[in-house]
Amino acid sequence: VSTQSTWVTVLLEDRSADSFFIHDAYKLNWLLVNEFELVFVVVYQKIIQLLYVDELLQRVKDAFCRIYKSALAQQSHLSLVIEGFEKEFEAILRQVEGEAERKAVRPAPRGGTPPKTRAIDAAPPEDRSRSPTERCPSPASPTSPAADDESQEAKLKRALAGRTRGKSGKYSAPAVTKPPPKPVKRVKQMAESWNEPKISGSSEPSAAQVEQAGQIFLPTGEVAENYDDEWDIQNEEGSDSEDDLTSQKEQPKKSKFMSLLKKLPLANKELDDELLDPVLASMREQLVGKNVAAEVADKLCESVAENLKGQTVGGFSRISTKVRSAMEQSLVRILTPKRDVNLLRDVEAANAQQRPFVIVFCGVNGVGKSTNLAKICFWLTHNKKRVMIAACDTFRSGAVEQLRVHSRCLKVPVFERGYNKDAASIAQEAIQQATKQNYDVVLVDTAGRMQDNEPLMRALTKLININNPDLILFVGEALVGNDAVDQVTKFNQSLRDLSDKPVPRLIDGIVLTKFDTIDDKVGAAISMVYTTGQPIVFVGVGQTYTDLKKLNPGVVVDMLLR
After folding, report:
1. What's the Cα-to-Cα distance from 341 to each of 10, 319, 509, 538, 556, rounded to whole Å?
2. 220: pLDDT confidence band, cut at 50, 70 and 90?
3. Checking phi first, is residue 377 left (phi over 0); if not, alpha (psi -120 to 50) or beta?
4. Which of 46, 58, 199, 206 could bridge to 27 as Cys pair (CB 3.0-4.6 Å)?
5. Secondary structure letter of residue 229 according to DSSP
6. Percent of all residues in the chain with a pLDDT value above 90, rounded to a whole number
């Protein structure tokens, strides 16, 4: 199972730049050899600290590749090579283990310097009969350096006393004024429970408010059956002219990039760091400029470099094409879901078990969780599903009223208990009521919280542990860059650390909002998917309920590399 997980995570998700992989109680280290398309893997328990693993892998790789290369020249069978390599592998293992043991034993330093001893033990034999007080010089002794310092200080004080003596003839020391203490700024601590703000209840939205919201969110005209098709920037209004302007602006950068590539030699060469580094440096700069997190861009470039090293090209013009093609394939593999994402099929499977399908929406503040919850609710009702909304944001003022307006526009019920209540209990009651009334889906809205706010993250973990939802969707903005990695990483880490389950529940999918406001800076999609390993279920591309699309990996990759 560990080896299979390694192939999926490392090779299929383009993480070959990493040097190890942890699965359950095991740790795996590997090396790739592109010249022979070989992978060397060593597996051991992660609690064992083996410091010689990298050296072992390198020596085994060198020895095996040497034998394998000669076997290929002689057209020998691979099984004979492996059988003959067992003894050499055991010899390499014993040699590496012996070197590690010798390094672990630290020899005594030359010169035989004994360890530090106390002053009493280090005294000469003839002085040990005296007491420590007799052996140590007195502070007032005239031969003591401290005594000399004190006598000098006394002389200075007497000289100053003669100058500063008043009428009384007594010495008065100058007054020393201490600076006033700086006021200590008290840091306001976040509430550890959901007791703020103290709002007694919520009011029903008026007819005018519902009508105004309907004008904003409800689509005009007839809704197409396939309005949730994959998002393509070419179908957006004014995109053609914007694309033309973008390509014109990027033309100087492209020509500069190509001129840099053409400076390198055109002879047939094996790809190495010297040839790949200039190309990948420009590629990294382009990815970061398109809003890909710097850490993710570095790992992507390192992974492409590892996959290309050892391959032979005929000229530098083909190097740029090869690097771009490798990066394009890598990005498409990352964005392509590793499992079949079919929300309607999963809903029907849950309904077959006589229970509703539960979706929990989580994320940081202000990313549009409630609005995109309403969009997904409209999509589900458009596909003939009965939906109930659970208002579990008991922290933000106006959150319940916002969902009430959406529920009136969408003609779906909202289950709420007002404010100052436990969100986990509200979700539990909503699921129980939806089960009794045969609803197909329950959409659970939660409060926005920063990823490093432990009390609120603990409350979210409690809600997930008690209710065990079928799908946990992280709602994030397409506008973020480096913060995307920090958000999803800390959300997953908090859910993992604060859970009391043997197998904690983590983020299952991503909803990327405000995707229509970023032009070609679509790098947040890559950053979030690469960090979590989970797919993007929907992207929000507008304000109305029908502005919900599925992600087209090919279009996103083309915009990143354009």
Report:
1. 21, 36, 9, 11, 18
2. low
3. alpha
4. 46
5. P
6. 19
